[in-house]
Amino acid sequence: MALAAVKGEKTLAELAQQDDVNPNLINQWRSRLLEGAPDVFGAEPATSEPAIDMTVLHAKIGELTLANDFLSGALGKAGLLSSAKR
Known about the structure:
4 helices, 86 residues, 66% helix, mainly alpha, 0% strand
């Protein structure tokens, strides 16, 4: 219906009567179509990278470092870790 309004082959009153819709509503649809058309056919939208929370990443690095150190020490004490990997 918005496309028909843009084409202008029929008046808003004729389109409204044809589908029993308020002409103001058709006009709103037409306006939205015209406003949004450049987005559909325009340049590729820029992909926004998600925000990276460095605090969370640093905390995870610290957590993994502690786990690695603990496991390395435990395996070393148990004699299961070669001296080259200590």
